[in-house]
Design brief:
This is AL1L2 dehydrogenase. By secondary structure, the chain is of the alpha+beta class. The chain has a domain of 97 residues: Methionyl-tRNA Fmet Formyltransferase, Chain A, domain 2. The chain has 3 helices and 7 strands; from the N terminus they run H-H-E-E-E-E-E-E-E-H. Strands 1, 2, 3, 4, 5, 6 and 7 form a 7-stranded antiparallel sheet that branches.
Amino acid sequence: VEAVHLIADGKAPRIPQPKEGATYEGIQKKENAEISWDQPAAALHNWIRGHDKVPGAWATIDGQVVTFYGSSLLDASVPAGQELAIKGASRPGLITKNGLVIFGNDGKMVLVRNLQFEDGKMIPASKYFSADETATLELTEEEKKMAEDIR
């Protein structure tokens, strides 16, 4: 009651909160979310997971910013895959059937499921090398006849 009366009378003490020990983190910005590769796999996973969805943890691949989404720690033997050079990483990543495998400085692995390019296009990481391929639709003779009848 006394505190309420002090506030109402404008006589309550005003003590600024010290910055030491404060837990508030400001709004994260994309430029601050770049992945630092000299960390163990658990730290890489936590960094990616902590920036998922906004602003998105990113790295430079083939000269463009690629954002990583959907990480999980991978506790298995190194899977077969196609190597992918990542700027700053001491070891290339691997594009596998399950996604992009990246390595921490402790040799352990993190699996990243989705990648987003600068233009906003998001793909499953496992399709990285096939992202530019376009599938052509080939119709059978019966389907061609049906298409002509519909036309």
